[in-house]
Amino acid sequence: MKLKMMYSFLNSDINIIEKKLEETIQAESRLLKQASMHTLQAGGKRIRPVFVLLGGKFGHYDINVMKNVAVALELIHMASLVHDDVIDDADLRRGQPTVKAKWDNKIAMYTGDFVFALALELMTIIERTEAHKILADTIFEVTVGEIQQIKDKYRFNQNLRDYLRRIKRKTALLIAASCQLGAIVADVEETIHKKLYRFGYYVGMSFQITDDILDFVATEEELGKPAGSDLLHGNITAPALFALEDATIRSEIENVHEKMESADIQRIITLIKQSGAIEKSVQLSDHYLSKALEILEELPANKAKKTLRDIAKFIGRRKY
């Protein structure tokens, strides 16, 4: 079953969110509007808004309230991607030119900042102070994660804990906040929305590890960018970390640099795939997925719970 089919009962509400996204990114500056719209039209799974809506289904669900939170979380995600592409010097995302490639780094950074600001402005509609605190903490951690990603580029002596801390900030906390904030604005009791947060965190960890695996094993057509881009740009992910445990492969990986020939990086990718590092990374992803599913069992039974289970299994076990 395709991912979108799993939450097809939310289609009308997702359409409302898409319209709200387009309305929100309008700007007086023609250039800012074009760059923001370019980012929005690049697509994406909209998984964070979906998690917001599903979190809300455990309480008093009102799409007119939910849409503001859902759009704010997606805008924060969009902004972080625009900034990431500058940090990674990435020209493609989902097969389309990035903002920094279509314009330049300065426009990309200002576009990311603009989209971040829109998210914060949108959240002012929500009166729950708890929601604002969670969002502020999440944005802080995402920002720290972006800075750490810069510091960790080509740092081959980092360990697994460094990597896990980085992807926690890069991906997992925003998904966790999406699940929890949707529940909070729907007046879900504290024990439930805290469990939804933990579920989102574990799913987010599994999701990012799986993404990092796919960067080595998927095709350029599937990725929308060349395979091995993470390693080429100095982002040391789980498969590379596990492969670095092999001394002979380590010397090869430590020679990776941004100007490396395609044939050379492909040879190193083949070595990593043959080392058993992919299998170890899959086990790590499955560890977090199992913890997410365990937490889910503690939640009340409803359609949202079943959908969360289906989505978790799908995004944690995408095609390797």
From TrEMBL:
EC numbers, comma separated: 2.5.1.30
Name of the protein described by the UniProt record: Heptaprenyl diphosphate synthase component 2
In which family does this protein belong, per the annotation?
Belongs to the FPP/GGPP synthase family.
This entry's Gene Ontology molecular function terms read:
heptaprenyl diphosphate synthase activity
Indicate the enzyme's highest-level EC class.
transferase
What's the superkingdom here? Bacteria
- Gene symbol of the encoding locus: hepT
Task: Cite the InterPro entries for this sequence.
Answer: GerC3_HepT (IPR014119), Isoprenoid_synthase_dom_sf (IPR008949), Polyprenyl_synt (IPR000092), Polyprenyl_synt_CS (IPR033749)
Q: Which residues form a coiled coil?
A: none
Organism lineage? Bacteria, Bacillati, Bacillota, Bacilli, Bacillales
The signal peptide stretch is: none
Species name: Neobacillus rhizosphaerae
Q: Which UniProt keywords apply?
A: Magnesium, Metal-binding, Transferase
- Cofactor or coenzyme needed: Mg(2+)
